[in-house]
Amino acid sequence: MPPLPLPHHSISRRGLLRGGVLAAAAATSTTLPTGLQAGIGLTRALGGEPGDDKPLSFACIGMGGQMRGYLLQELAKLDQRVVAICDVDRQQLETAGKIKELADARVYADYRELLAEESGVDGVIIATPDHWHVPICRAALERGKHVYCEKPLAHSVAECRALERLALDHPGLATQTGNQGCSTEGFRRSFEVVRSGLLGPIREVHVWHPAHGWPNGIDRPADSDPIPAGLDWDFYLGTAPPRAYKTGLYHPGQWRGWYDFGGGSIADFCCHGFQLAFRSLDLGAPRRIEATGDDLGHESFPTRCTIRYEFAARGDRGPVTMVFYSGNDNLPPEDVTRGPVGTTGCLLVGSEGTLSAGLWNTDCQVRLKGEDGFSAADHPEVARIARTEPRIDTEALKWDPGRVAKGERPRWSKVNNSHMFEWVLACAGSTKTYSPFEVGAKITELGMLGVLALRMQEPIQWDADTCSAVGLPAATPLIDPPPATTKYLPG
Q1: Domain that holds residue 371
Q2: What is the pTM of this model?
């Protein structure tokens, strides 16, 4: 099949880089993306090299709601083209095929066939259930493809470490974790606030999320339903243990509550809510994890739980406690919140002040010692803090020079296409991503350790060097599951 025609307004490698660099450079409140600050790749970005006019092309694997409702929209804003899509469910493919930008995309039911046939694609975007993330990431990276993968990146601690090694073994390929909050102005500013010392030593971090609509606190039913036409249920299960199909309980959209496919709220939101604390405080691995809650001990995530992480002192930083709360009305104590809070959130509590970052870590609200309420990032003390983190101008990314010329900027917490744009720039070769797999895998590991504590139902003394739960040999199969024997992995 011949290559798809490129729309007249699509961006080539050279045009993409030129637009991205100039947009970032023109904004006085921003800096160039990482890799361009010191001029690395700047000559190529502005002057081009042979082959730079070849358009970028992408393949999408896992065509559910997240892919259709967010990822494709972000890619479309950048006028990039998707040449191939893949899913084990024909209904998902048919729904995706109705999207204008995908009308001419080639269709696959097997990711291995896609990777074999689409040798010319620049990058692969993955939005499958969690248990398929690492196998497909591995296959794509080993084929030499740049990869954007939805969070959580992995489904076990061992998978986190394997993916981190895999990314480090392929330094020429751009990877990006789907935790888009870290690409916002709010995240970068919050990082700078914490690093500045304005809040004093930070000893506590609190992250909370209400109950979700996935199956919680139950086991699989004994009966089964007919597998819908067009759904390859065996392929869907893949590396997960066999189970009978049940309508409305697993697919589509309900899989995340089941440990065989996902890890509930802690797996889903660890890469959002934990990332600011992990990065700004240089947390590293915890030494102890303890989980309590209601309806533990089932095949699915509990209805309500609290997971407590203890991190040892490191360098100039003292010990830190991080607590994750899941379930309706399961909130941090009032002496921490000091008033009503929303259903989701993240607080970093220091001796001289508290930062409210929001669950996606996109906010930058500061309450200093002696103040009654939170103030936005224009707080005088915050305004004095130097900008040290790389930024991409998010208004310029909308290709709206009129608004940029007026000096307009989005709200601190606004999430838009800068995260995807950063990855696409990295695919083109002149920048680095802010949340590559070697970073995202470490944050994901925190989520997997929370899942481990929930499933073991006893405190975990964690030995990061040996990747083991001290004195709990029963935890080993959950930390590093036995190799899958499924026929759906690459040969």
Answers
A1: 183-388+446-479
A2: 0.88
